[in-house]
Amino acid sequence: MTNLIRAEMYKLQRNKTFWVILLTVTGLSALLHYLVLIGWWQMQGTSFDAAGLSELNALSTFTVPLFFNLIVSTLAGFFISIEFSQSGIIKNQVISGNKRSHIFMAKFLIFSLGAIVATILIPLVTAIILLFLTGHGDILDTSNLIYLGRSYGLYIVQFLGYTAIIIILAIITDDSGKTIIISILFTIVMYAVEKLSMPPFIEVIYENSIFYQFTEVFKFTMTNGEIIKSILIGIITIIIITLCGVFIFNRKEIK
Questions:
Q1: 214 Cβ contact list (under 8 Å, min separation 6)
Q2: What DSSP line would sit under 30-50, residue for residue?
Q3: Could you give the CA distance from residue 250 to residue 255 in angstroms, rounded to a whole number?
Q4: CB 33 within 8 A of CB 90
Q5: What are the tens digits of pLDDT across the range 124-174?
Q6: Mind listing the pLDDT tens digit for each residue in 167-205?
Q7: Phi, psi (5° rounding) for residue 109?
Q8: Distance CA 233, CA 65 (A)
């Protein structure tokens, strides 16, 4: 298992798409945060605004599933799906004697790490650096740091459930283009469920899903019950989806 994780990490570090994504996200994040900080781009009504962190409003862009899905699905398509092509190496991993469950978990862990770095870590670090460079670093007092730590800690738990879903799509489609398109359609459906009037049972399911929690975890105040509920939803989702992923991968025909 350790060797598989090291191998996946090596492949991620040598993946050109991953580095293109990192550079693109870094540039875009720096631009958006700078525009907000100089007052050129006005954003109101965000969770960060309500928390008294209006200087970090650009971070809300990177927490919207319709946006971060483009990053995650692209990485999945060119890091996971591409390995199932005839030129891929997935067949060598399978016939080398490694358990398929171990192969799946290694890919899930490293893919999730790459997605977290590109989608969460870079925007957050970029925002903090620009805060200090533009003289706004004093807003990061103890209270705000606790808020950011709690929000992003819970957010990452939900995000891992999402990356588990995307990696399953990548394995099923075994095509980078299909992975991106289907994941976008899936995210649009979740967005429609959130915005449109739906039957009560669908609303109940949605309100107890990671997609609802993507917004809830950034509320300025959360009760202990809400925090526990968010953690449970994220962990249960991760467990169920990864078990489904192992099941699907075990039965996947490797050509």
A1: 63, 64, 65, 155, 158
A2: HHHHHHHHTTSS---S-HHHH
A3: 14
A4: no
A5: 999 999 988 888 778 888 888 999 999 999 999 999 999 999 999 988 887
A6: 999 888 877 788 888 888 888 887 777 677 677 788 888
A7: -65, -45
A8: 17
